[in-house]
Amino acid sequence: MHSRSTNVLRGIGETERRMITALSAAEVPVVSADDIVSSLGISRTAANLGLARLAKKGWLQRLRRGRYSLVPLSSRSAAPAVEDPLAVAMQLFSPCYVSGWTSAQHWDLTDQIHNAVVVLSARPQRHGTLMVGRVAYRVRRIRPEAIFGTVRVWSGTVAVQMASSHRTVIDVLDSPEIGGGGRQTVDIVRAYWSSRTAEPKTLLDLAVRLGRGTVFKRLGLLAEQSGRVEHRWLEEYRGHLSKGVSLLDPASPIQGPIVSRWRLRVNIPIEDWA
After folding, report:
1. Quick one: which of 19, 18, 15 has its CA closest to 32?
2. Span 14-70: which CATH code?
3. Smallest Cα–Cα separation from 247: which of 225, 211, 214, 210?
4. What are the residue ranges spanned by the domains of the chain?
5. Segment 84-108, tens digit of pLDDT
């Protein structure tokens, strides 16, 4: 690989130099041929060829087909970890939002550290877990109309759609695996009920809009156990239960007591469970 310290533009042609200049000025985490076509007015074929050449020479890092990121001049590697994983997610998986253990960390609902970013996306994905720019992404497919209950947070200059603390709770109750599993999901929900931002009605509204009866079973059980939710809200939750008995943690063995009031089998150990 060529030296990046003595002359950062050595080894590239005039068109490639213009491409690097344009991409650096754009200050976006992910670039594609569209960025080159619009800024330099060259053909898409020329833009794609230029991007491929720059990636081969170590100026760009290929993230996915047709998508690249600029390699920082200070990097000692041609394939460093992307500097802004959340911003990259917004451009690779849009329409999408960040949720699960990632948003739980953002809202201080968990202190567990996970090595992957959880993204809920309406874009079809061939794999649920993938590496992009040396960052792991856990991507769960959802319906486009299920993208709601998010807030906009800024990651550098990029707006990131993040699940609100309320939507985070609904998402991990719907799919405990994106909360880190059943036990960590219970901890996240408990932390939520202990926070000042807990809102029983907001959870009700979000769960009704999502329309998954199992969510109400898990929500109701843990809300009741928290001792912080009024009886009227617990009865509201009970009014939306689906039929049959569900598991508190779908990934754990089918064993443990059934709480008939919530049509839920408590199949994982819960501290202070009565």
Report:
1. 19
2. 1.10.10.10
3. 214
4. 14-70, 85-265
5. 889 889 988 999 999 999 999 999 9
